[in-house]
């Protein structure tokens, strides 16, 4: 699922690999994308990729429920950092705080997050949690790219997740498709459903996607992020 604030596009493929992104004309490597930590998204440069915090908090929740007391405590700290970050973002969007205050506080949360993850990664008796912490630390820069433009870069890719929900439900309750022709038909049906769903969706942008003309969308000069979800 490729989604932005102006349009959505779903593409059915046989795999979730990086080739899907490489072969898609909707994936400009210079675009800002919001994704989870799935390896296929390494196709994008770190500076252009924002890691979804809704996925990160799930990782932190698992750490907070660890059998290891030290991991459990540090996991709770990480979860609390995420909760505070979401609260700050909400306050920013409601104009309750300004960008300066948001950025200053978020930078402090970044230091705390890095410290907690490093502490977990150094625990020899918690091999699994240590591995998770080390993997998250590899994405540390991408976790905080929203600091470059707090008002326009979202913390999560929930937009794409919501857009793809109808398809996920359909796939669980059907025999799916048996041909490329069926895939193409299903893509159009689901896209039409999403177009008629949010009434604020601009139909000309959907038309651009259907006619494989992403350049027309970007040429509008609207600054937006691309939300990605591979399932």
From TrEMBL:
- Residues in Transposase IS66 central domain copies: 11-182
Under InterPro entries, the record lists:
Transposase-related, Transposase_IS66_central
Q: What is this protein called?
A: Transposase IS66 family protein
């Amino acid at each position: 699922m490729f989604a932005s604030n102006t349009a959505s596009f779903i593409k059915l493929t046989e795999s979730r690999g990086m080739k899907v992104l490489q072969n898609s004309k909707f994936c400009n490597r210079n675009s800002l994308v919001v994704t989870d930590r799935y390896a296929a998204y390494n196709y994008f440069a770190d500076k252009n990729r924002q890691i979804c915090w809704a996925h990160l908090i799930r990782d932190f929740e698992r750490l907070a429920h660890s059998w290891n007391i030290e991991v459990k405590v540090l996991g709770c700290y990480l979860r609390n950092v995420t909760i505070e970050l979401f609260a700050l973002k909400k306050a920013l969007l409601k104009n309750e705080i300004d960008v300066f205050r948001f950025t200053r506080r978020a930078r402090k949360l970044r230091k705390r997050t890095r410290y907690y993850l490093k502490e977990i990664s150094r625990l020899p008796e918690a091999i699994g949690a240590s591995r998770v912490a080390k993997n998250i630390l590899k994405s540390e820069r991408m976790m905080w790219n929203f600091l470059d433009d707090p008002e326009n870069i979202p913390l999560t890719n929930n937009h794409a997740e919501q857009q793809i929900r109808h398809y996920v439900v359909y796939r669980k309750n059907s025999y799916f498709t048996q041909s490329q022709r069926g895939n193409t038909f299903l893509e159009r049906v689901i896209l039409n459903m999403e177009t008629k769903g949010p009434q604020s969706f601009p139909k000309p942008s959907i038309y651009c996607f259907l006619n494989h003309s992403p350049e027309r969308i970007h040429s509008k000069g609207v600054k937006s992020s691309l939300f990605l979800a591979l399932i």
